[in-house]
Design a protein that fits this description.
mainly alpha, 290 residues
Length: 290
């Protein structure tokens, strides 16, 4: 929604300023220029991108249109889910977490937290983080190395579509110049015609330059930056899980492991220490009753 509002503001500002200066919006409507610039930009995007990057770009664009993927409520549910798991592991041993890790969709703990259990990538990341320790394949102190490698890989993979979109945006002004040059070529073929026709063709050529720059700096580059922020939110969620899990398996109490994860959150989603304590007390009560 915010992206759409921003796009409307950009278009309204440019169009409004143009009209106030005495221009007519109809003079900017040249389908041929849009075809040249849009088609060339799309073609370049396809040429420079592997299929997976294009698919990931589409997924990230949908995610960006929905807004920030993880709000404060999502983090509160995540912290409570982690705390309950850690309490169970502390009381009954790590082997008690096996059923929850192997079958998260039927876990009596994880299924209580809707925003977490419906986030398939986060569920998979948590289960894959705990499984090597439960299976005894690695020592607790080695887990952080494993998680850091996975987080780095996740960040690199998510950055690829942003990098491609940025490069395509940087190329748009050049495609605008291409459209302008083609327009001038057409104009030169009609140089002996009426001055009004020549002026119209030159104006159409200049519209090509305008559109290339406008699409680049008005839409594509800002959109790439938005994807960067949305991806950072996605990575922060995964890093919160990794921090808490690594801290717990290395001996920190469930409360301190979750507190460590809380301190790594950005201020807009981070609950205060008192809020966290109240949340975890509420999560611990059902677990004790059970």
């Amino acid at each position: 929604m915010i992206i759409l509002i921003g796009a409307i503001i950009v278009i309204a500002s440019v169009a409004g300023g143009f009209v106030l200066a005495g221009g007519h919006l109809a003079t900017l409507m040249h389908l041929s220029e849009l075809i040249i610039i849009g088609g060339a930009g799309l073609g370049a995007l396809i040429i420079m991108s592997p299929r997976k990057v294009l698919v990931d770009m589409g997924r990230q664009l949908v995610r960006a249109l929905r807004g920030a993927p993880h709000n404060q409520h999502a983090y509160q549910e995540l912290l409570k889910a982690l705390y309950e798991l850690f309490l169970l592991g502390r009381r009954n041993g790590m082997i008690a977490l096996e059923d929850h890790v192997m079958n998260p969709q039927t876990s009596s703990i994880l299924t209580k937290y809707t925003t977490f259990i419906t986030n398939q990538s986060a569920v998979t990341f948590l289960c894959n983080s705990l499984r090597p320790v439960i299976d005894g394949k690695i020592k607790p102190e080695q887990l952080k190395i494993l998680l850091d490698v996975e987080l780095d890989s996740l960040e690199m993979e998510d950055h690829a579509p942003v990098n491609v979109l940025t490069k395509a945006a940087d190329a748009m002004p050049c495609f605008g110049i291409v459209a302008a040059v083609l327009g001038i070529v057409i104009t030169m073929g009609s140089i002996s015609g009426p001055i009004e026709k020549i002026g119209e063709k030159v104006g159409a050529a200049l519209v090509g330059t305008f559109l290339g720059i406008f699409l680049s700096y008005g839409f594509m580059n800002p959109l790439a930056m938005n994807l960067e922020f949305v991806n950072a939110s996605h990575h922060g969620y995964a890093r919160c899980i990794a921090t808490a899990v690594a801290a717990f398996v290395n001996g920190l109490s469930p409360m301190m492991a979750v507190e460590l994860a809380r301190r790594g959150l950005s201020s807009d989603v981070r609950p205060s220490a008192d809020e966290l304590e109240a949340l975890l007390k509420g999560a611990a009560a059902p677990a004790k009753a059970a």
